Amino acid sequence: MEDEAKPVRQPQRRLNPPMMEVVKKEVIKLLQMGIIFPISDSKWVSPTQVVPKKTGVTVVENKHGELMPTRIQNGWRVCIDYRRLNAVTRKDFFPLPFIDQMLERLAGHKFYCFLDGYSGYFQVPIAPEDQEKTTFTCPFGTFAYRCMPFGLCNAPATFQRCMMSIFSEYVELFMEVFMDDFTIHGDSFDSCLLHLSLVLKNCLESNLVLNSEKCHFMVEEGIVLGHVISSKGIEVDKAKVEVIQSLPYPTTVKEIRSFLGHAGFYRRFIKDFSKIASPLCTLLQKEVEFIFSEDCKKAFNALKEKLVTAPIIQAPDWSLPFEIMCDASDYAVGAVLGQKVGRASHVIYYASTTLNDAQRNYATTEKEMLAVVYALEKFRSYLLGTKVIIYTDHAAIRFLMTKKEAKPRLIRWILLLSEFDVEIKDKKGMENLVADHLSRLVLGEGNNHIKDDIRGEFPDETLFSLKEIRPWYAHIVNFLVLNRFPPSFSKAQREKLQHDAKQYVWDEPYLWKHCKDQVIRRCIPETEIASILAFCHSHACGGHFGGKRTSMKVLECGFGGQAYSEMLMSIVNLVIIANAWATSLESTRCHKFLCSTWRSLMCGE
């Protein structure tokens, strides 16, 4: 109790006849059990409250003809409103286990036993000097508890501490405890039976009573905290999903918040949850008119569909490296934590979050880097001390860790990456319509004596002679890889090549350049100009912007190099043609801008 806390006596609350009968039966039962006793001079008095109680599980047939497990309501629970008492109570911060970690430890076993404490709180006695503080009032008098009731703010922590003291030697070994729910597992029938006998022995020694109606023995799957666990992994509770499926379109902000809360409970199973729910989250903002648009309906239905088709999540294998898939869009970032077991990959965790206004203004490289940083922070408990392989759409971010000069924000992110054993790899984006692999390079013009037929004993460098198409930067790559100058180069050209090569990094099959604006961009060959230009202008995400905006969008996408001359000249030509038909010459400013931009971007500056 906090110092100088003043006792509070509250009056009783009105109850209708049915609820009064429920309270009467509960009072008589508790008096007969010796859990409560009459009291008349207590300084603390709290009112009574009656709430529905769901016990037991039945199987019902849904509209699709499928049998679904469903909890049924067959009783009422009498609770006490201890809010005034809790406000002046010194809080107990004994920790409860993390649900996701507990489920991961439980998943993957063959047999399970599920035990439930019988009125678990009532099995914990209260110190005599504190019993009067639990006094409650009802139409039948004032009573105080000898045992711990529901509603006290420290009741969960106290009960968890008691259960941990009873089963501490078994927890995380073959048993998990969350309040009065105990789960025992084994990889064989005999081992599970042995573990069950050890747990029941401790229950007998500590006089812990179990509820036989809620106990299940030697089963292959079961429900734990709203999730189905089995040897296959972790799944969503179909009974809960069925309830969400039947919800109509929300008509108020409160209903949207309720829906997102229920769906968000399973966001671990939904890829890009934040991205999908973005239209709904917008309606939760202040000063936003509530209009449930078509985008909101699509998001609402998409989340329902994602829940129905949610995958089975696997528990992590701590002896294997973790893999992270990162991606970023204009308004959200997402990440997937997984592992590769043999040749098969399985998902451990989906995570996503929306970007704030400042983050939405980041460059593309920075957004991709932000996705990596978000993934590392979200999955930190999994990744520390283990090997981590990160796949991202923007391979340029791997070079940020070696940059000597960068923005303060990037430096902070680089420091975060240094805490982990990280390997960054490139991956193909789901919506990437630009060519993902460059043509193989050829050696200089003076190396025509190398034949196309390659023998197995040839060194890897000779693979550069396979293709006929030669990008503009072939001599740069050949110098970086083979330290070889083109035979036709003069002394001045060789010195310039040697100087310019310091700005480039070859990471097969891409060439990257450190630009003056502290951004690393991929150099593109001439063969990709048309596809990049079409993607940034004509694609569904392009927006069909004008020359100025399209050229800047190409720049934001992280592309650079000499091929900009042809790409931007194509835009310039279109602008010139449009200007020829214009009645005013004022629009030629776009032409001037593109010409200056072209000169600065020719070398990826």
Adjacency order of strands in the biggest sheet: 1-6-5-2-3
Please tell me the overall pLDDT. 79
Weakly predicted, low-confidence segments = 428-468, 581-605
Largest sheet: 5 strands, mixed
Percent range for β-strand residues: 15-25%
Can you count the beta strands? 21
Radius of gyration: 33 Å
Oligomer: single chain
Structural class of the secondary elements? alpha+beta
Distance between the termini: 67 Å
Overall geometry:
elongated
Give me the number of helical elements: 19
Portion in helices: 25-40%
Task: Explain the overall architecture.
- This protein is of the alpha+beta class.
- Helices cover 33% and strands 21% of the residues.
- It is built from 19 helices and 21 strands.
- The protein has helices at residues 17-33, 83-87, 99-106, 155-167, 189-205, 238-245, 253-264, 273-276, 278-282, 294-308, 364-378, 380-383, 408-417, 474-482, 491-500, 529-537, 547-556, 564-581, 589-601, and strands at residues 36-38, 46-61, 67-80, 111-116, 136-138, 141-145, 175-178, 181-186, 216-219, 221-224, 227-230, 233-236, 322-328, 332-341, 344-354, 387-392, 421-426, 504-507, 510-514, 520-523, 559-560.
- Helix 6 (238-245) runs antiparallel to helix 10 (294-308), helix 11 (364-378) runs parallel beside helix 13 and helix 16 crosses helix 17 (547-556).
- 30% of the residues are buried.
- The model is unreliable at 428-468 and 581-605 (pLDDT under 50).
- Residues 73-228 form the Reverse transcriptase domain.
- InterPro entries: DNA/RNA_pol_sf, Retrovirus_Pol_polyprotein, Rev_trsase/Diguanyl_cyclase, RT_dom, RT_RNaseH.
